[in-house]
Structures are given as C-alpha cells and as structure tokens.
Amino acid sequence: MNKPENAADTRQALLAMGRSARQAAAALALASTAAKNEALVHMAEAIRADAALIARENEADLAAATDKALKSSFIDRLTLTPARIEAMAQGLDAIAGLPDPVGDVTDRWTRPNGLKIARVRVPIGVIGIIYESRPNVTADAGALAMKSGNAAILRGGSDGFRTSAAIVAALQRGLAAAGLPKEAIQMVPTMERDAVGLLLSGLEGTIDLIVPRGGKSLVARVQQEARVPVFSHLEGICHVYVHRAANLAMAQSIVLNAKMRRTGVCGAAETILVDQACAATHLKPLIAALSDAGCEIWGCDRTQSADARVKPAAEADWGTEYLDAIVSMKVVDGLDEAMAHIARYGSQHTDAIVTDDTAAAGRFLTEVDSAITLHNASTQFADGGEFGFGAEIGIATGRLHARGPVGLEQLTTFKYQISGTGQIRP
Amino acid sequence: MNKPENAADTRQALLAMGRSARQAAAALALASTAAKNEALVHMAEAIRADAALIARENEADLAAATDKALKSSFIDRLTLTPARIEAMAQGLDAIAGLPDPVGDVTDRWTRPNGLKIARVRVPIGVIGIIYESRPNVTADAGALAMKSGNAAILRGGSDGFRTSAAIVAALQRGLAAAGLPKEAIQMVPTMERDAVGLLLSGLEGTIDLIVPRGGKSLVARVQQEARVPVFSHLEGICHVYVHRAANLAMAQSIVLNAKMRRTGVCGAAETILVDQACAATHLKPLIAALSDAGCEIWGCDRTQSADARVKPAAEADWGTEYLDAIVSMKVVDGLDEAMAHIARYGSQHTDAIVTDDTAAAGRFLTEVDSAITLHNASTQFADGGEFGFGAEIGIATGRLHARGPVGLEQLTTFKYQISGTGQIRP
Question: How many CB atoms sit inside 10 A of residue B36's CB?
Fold first, then answer.
C-alpha cells in the first residue's frame, strides 16, 4: 500500500481502488457460503497470528495520539489489548457462523401465463464505511460486508491508521487463503481529508452505499455531502412514555434501564414523558429512581414541582441527545400529547410506551413514526444482536431499504429471476 | 391555486406545499383502507363529472402546444379524448380494487427473552413525481401514491399544465369527499424551471422520494441533482441471448416479441446476442424474422456475413437504447462472453436467455446483475401489470429498496413494532 502524495494522486488511487472493489464485488456476489465462511475463519486465524504486529502498530498509533493530548475516552476506544484482539478474532468466527442471506428466495409466485417469478436476495455491491478511530470496526465492518457478498472500502479515523492497516493486511490474507479476491476488503491508503469527499462522491459510480459509524459531526457531514445512498442515524433522541395505565414497578425498571444501562448508545432514552393522570403516583418514584442512580434531570414545571432535584428544562432540552447521565422529563396530558411531542422533537429512531392498556399501546406502536417502536420494553433493545441479527454494522433511521439495526440481510438487495417456457407478451 | 410570480415566491410556495404534504402524509399513513378506496372511487366519479372541463383545458393546452410545432408523438401523448378520460377514471377504480400494503406484517418472530418483534409495512411519506406532458400520469401517479399511504407532489410537463390542474382539482374533490386531506395530492403551481430544482433539493426535508417519469434527459437531470432517494431507470438496454441450446422457433418468437411488440418501452430488447455454436442454424432465421417485421439490424462481422440486410454496427451501437425498430446483433462465443457483454454494455434493467439447457439458464439468471433476468420469456414482461402488481409508477434500476416494477408495495417501507412484558436489557 503506497501512500499517495498529493490530491491528484489521492484521486487516482481512490478511483483505482473503486474499480478493483467493483471487480471484487462481482466475484464475491457469486462466491459460495462455504468460501466466504472459510475466508472468515482464515481472517480470524490471521488476526491471531498477527496479534503482536497489530499490537505494535497500535502502540505506535497510541504514542502519536497521546502526544496530541486527546480525551481519555477517545484513547480507550483506540487501544487494543490482547483481549480485544482476541475478541476481534472471535467476532470474525461468529460472523462465519451466521446464516448467509445471499441467494435466499424471499418471495415466489406463478403468473396466470405460467411465468414463475422469484425474488432473490443479492448483495448490494461496494460499500464505503467511514468511521472514527475504533480499530475493531475495521474487522467487524469489513467482515459483515464480505459475508453479505459485498466489497468494502474502509476509511477509519487518522489516529488508528497504522492499526487498521495491520488489521486489513490480516483480513486480506484470510481472503486470499480462501481463494477470494483480496480487493474485497480495502482501506483508503491515505488520511488526506479529500479522501472522504471522494468516497462520498461515489468514486465514479463504483460505490453503491455509504455507512458512517461515528459521532454526530461525522454523520452530518456524510448525510450532507454523499451523492450515494447512506445508511445512518444522525442521533437517537429516544423517548419512554409512561402512560396513565403503566405499572409503576415496570415503568421504573424500564425508565432506569432505558436511560442508565449505557448512556452513550444511540438507543439510550433522552426524554421521559409521564402521563398527568398517573403523575400523582408515578412521577416522584420515577424521578427518585433516576436521581438515586446518579442521573441529572431537566424537567418541565410540573416535573420540577414534584422533586427539588429537578432543574428547569429549556426548549432546547427536548431536542438534545445527551449521551450522558442526563435526561429531560415532561408531564403530558395524555397519549396524543405524548405522540405529538415525539413527532416534533424525536429523531425517528426508537421510542417506547409503558402501559397495561392494549389499545393505547397499539396506537403508540402504529402511530409513532420511528424505525422501532416498543411496548413495555427498554429502548436499549435497539441493537442488531438483540433483534437476533447476530451482528450489525449500525442503526439506520432513513426511511428507505434499511431501518433499525443493519445486519447481514439489510446489506443485501434483491433481483427478480423469471423462468418461462417461451412466453411472449400479447 | 395562485401562481407565484418570481423565484422567491416560488420557493415559498413550494416550501409551504412541502409542509402541507408532510401533514397530509401523517394523516394518510393512518387512514383506513376503506377511506382510501372510497376516495379513489370519488376521484373516479369526479374525473367523469369533470370530463367536459378537463377536455376544454386539454384543448387549451393542445392549442398552445400545436402553436409551438411539437412532434406528433408528443401531441398524441398530451391529447385526452373522451375514451382516455374514461380510461383514467377506470384506472382509479382499478387502484381502489388493489390490496392495500400498509399495515401488512411481513415478518414476525419472538426473541428468547419473550420480546415479540413484527416488521410492519408503513408508507414512505411524501413522494415527488416529475413527469413529462402526459396528463394520465397525473391521476395514475397521484392515486398510486395515495393508495400506498403517501402524499404526492406532482410536477408535470409545462405543455399539460392546464389539463393537469383540472385533473388534480377533481382528485382533490375525491379526497375531500372521503374525509381525507386534499393536500395529499398536490401539484406544483408554477411551470418555472426553478421548481424542479427545489423539488430535487427535498424541500427542506419534506420530500422523502423522487420518482421521475419521462425520457433520458429528464431522468439524467433528476439522478444528477436529487438530494433525496430516486426510483428510476435511466435507460433499458435489454438483451436477448440466444444460447446454443435454444429452440429455434422459441428464439424467433421471443426475439421478435422482445424487440418489436412495442419498440418504445424500456423493456424492449436493444441487442440480440447469438451463440456461435448455433449461429449456422439460428442466425439467418432470426435476422429474417426481424427484417421481415421491418426491423433494421446493425451487426458484428459474423452477423453481417449471414445476411446482406445487416449493416455494420459501430462500438456505440452496443450501448444504444434505440427505442425504435432498430436492433444491434452480435455473435458471441458462449455464455461467458454473452454475460461479459451484458455486464459491459447493459443497464442492469432486464435481460433474457433462450435455452433448453437448465444449467446455462441457472447461471444466466443468477450471474447477470440486472433487476430482472428471464429464462425463455420476452423482456417485454418487465412491467408491473405483468408481475401481478396491478399498476406501477415506473421501473427502477437502482440497487436499493425498489428494483424492477415499482407498484404499491414498493412505495412502502417498514418499521419494527416490538411488544414486551417489561423486558430490560441486561
């Protein structure tokens, strides 16, 4: 991998990468499940064999990153321990064990004229994955794309460049060992910022889809600039609505879990809505559960008057993704106001209702226009593993093709295969 | 409907239209099938009641169009006869009779923790439809969008402006009669060219999808400029490959139908590939069938030497969508060369193989990377009606979400509805 030295070089290098990825994708689309699984197992072995080399490159990345005085959470995500390298290898083995969606016939019917039409899953093609300095994404995203028959072009954060390069080298050895083209998983060979813009342009039609994985500013840039389809979520402003017919113990448990299990994930709740009809009994215990767990609460007037620990929410709070031990809380007049609030301030990601009233739950599940709506369960179930998808490349809030967790199936599209006996159209 | 008078007015008018369409879409997403069908029947009645008015507006459009000395095929498409107005009304009645995809549960499973996950069809939202001066598209596209729970913003060609306005007025009366918001089907109230650019920008997030219906230059502009997803096909360079194991009579029948049944549709064949192994027996009869039917043939050297009527094909012929009684024809060495030719020159639309060899057919159906692949059937089956979709808003060759005919189902997306009993995530 030679680093290009200027913008024209970068452009040429990326276009060549796009063309070779397109060729690899054509081969991979027809590769057998056995060959893809064999490659994944070889990739895992190569990661294990190269563990010392990968750790060394990671140390070099970390030394440079520490020099720049980056945040400790950032350093933590960049750091690969032996356990994390082994987990990466195990992740590849696990993907080998997942069912292969390619070739699945999802629908099949026969027309009155005898034509047999089958709707068959096929790979999307070439997927560009743009992410921050998390080396594990390199293996994970590359492997998910490959297992679903797609070629991957990876562009990780600059601070993990050497680590990612070492990981990609191992992945490519695994591909070659299974007789698959190593160009099926490639990494942009430069950290020039121009490279992202080129990927987002689609590299002259060689990229079919972009998946950004990272913070809001990265995703916002990708959504703004991309000239090809994007699977992404800008933010997860997730709500838990405690309806008047909510069981208090269940509401406490779900609210606490939805907000505090992990505060940094996109499925974490950011706003709790409490029905005024049960506020007298439910509001104080809900506030207490959150406060006692160390959560800061910004609330409406009615919430503030229930507990002195609640601070006044500003208008901006209703549209804020805290990703921290902070929550906004509002008393609403009923189901309609709750749904109107979610429509106005939500991000169409994941929203939950807690209630024993089946009719209210039915309306909420149907009428709230989010990728995932839940009844009597925590918003933190917004996750590919929890859906049974085995692994996910991210969560999508766009309206087309993939919504919610993006697993192997969501990385495929379909074609129609039609079999006849000489039919012509009258 | 007041016509805006300048660019700033146009922008304001379109943004207001987008916002009202978004509101209408929210209502329509929850409308019952009965209400939508009632609206369609009222819309058909309103078209019939307004037939004289619509005809008068059409005459005014035609008078202006004839003044500009447009092509006769263009004038024909713009012209509404009483029979065509009745056909438009019947089309609305037919859409009322189609099954409603909204609310269909397409998948349903239970997780080990008891969570019940359902994948449910929901409308896409607001669909912008940009088309040429074919007034019937106004009723057809507006009705298909509405039946699938979407709001439509229509932008037809300027030469049919008065006709379309009269049709939209009738459609809106039908919506109102069923208690649905008339803003569910709206028409851009100006022919300013800026309006198309504004639609393609997505009108500040109020448009979810653009469907262009028209010639290559319109579709190319939409694909180039759109900042929102587009369902479209730029062109249909469809192939029929006559394999060495093709039955001659079937090959003749399919080739003739694929090319000549209607030459102006996107599923018409543009290139015939003939296997060299059967060229001695099949080539002359295939050329004769086409030539005798009035088709001009541009062929490779081997095709030319088979029949004096074949003219020499240039390189550009292999990538040309003639949409006319013209075909390009090439003798290929076998299945691999045929598939390589299609990969290089095709448009991923619709391609067919004629053969009695099941293995060859299987490879062709799987390996040719087009939205529709056929075995022993005419490419002219690339049509929503022929798929059993009842009606289509167009054909898509993009890789995501909708491929092939775009009917009611393809105008929906999905959400996950999850029902629990208090599950929290460990």
Answer: 23
The two tokens of residue A213 are 């994985």
Whether the predicted pLDDT of A315 surpasses 90: yes
Alpha carbon distance A168, A92 (integer Å): 13
pLDDT at A5 over 80: no
Residue B301 near chain A (CB below 8 Å):
no
- Compute the residue count for chain A: 426
Q: pLDDT tens-digit profile of B356-378? A: 999 999 999 999 999 999 999 99
Whether A106 has its CB under 8 Å from any CB of chain B: the answer is no
**Cβ of residue A117 closer than 8 Å to a chain B Cβ:** yes
- Find how far residue B58's CA is from the centre of its chain: 24
Cβ–Cβ below 8 Å for B388 and A250: no
* A399/B contact by beta carbon, under 8 A: yes
Q: Write the CB contacts of B311 (distance below 8 Å, at least 6 apart in sequence).
A: B296, B297, B298, B299, B304
To the nearest whole Å, the CA of A302 is away from the closest chain B CA by: 26
- Measured between alpha carbons, how far is A125 from A202 in angstroms, rounded to an integer? 12
Q: Are strands A209-213 and A238-242 parallel, antiparallel or unpaired?
A: unpaired
CA distance B361 to A384: 37
Q: Please list, in sequence order, all residues whose beta carbon lies within 8 angstroms of the beta carbon of residue B148, skipping any fewer than 6 positions away.
A: B100, B101, B102, B123, B124, B408, B409, B411, B412
Of the CA atoms within 13 Å of residue B210, those in its CB half-sphere come to: 29
Other C-beta atoms closer than 10 Å to the C-beta of A280 total 9
Is residue A401 within 8 Å of A229, Cβ to Cβ?
yes
CB contact under 8 A, A117 and B376: no
Q: Show the tokens assigned to B344.
A: 């290089």
pLDDT in tens, B108-147: 999 999 999 999 999 999 999 999 988 999 999 999 999 9
CA distances from A277 to A220, A273, B355, B401 (A): 39, 12, 71, 43
Chain A residues touching B256 at Cβ < 8 A: 424
Q: A208 contacts in B (CB within 8 Å)?
A: 399-400
Inform me whether the C-beta atom of residue B323 falls under 8 Å from chain A C-beta atoms.
no
Residue A4 main-chain phi, psi, to 5 deg? -65, 155
Q: Alpha helix (H) ranges present in A226-327? A: 248-260, 279-292, 301-306
CA torsion angle A272 A275 A281 A282 (round to 10): -20
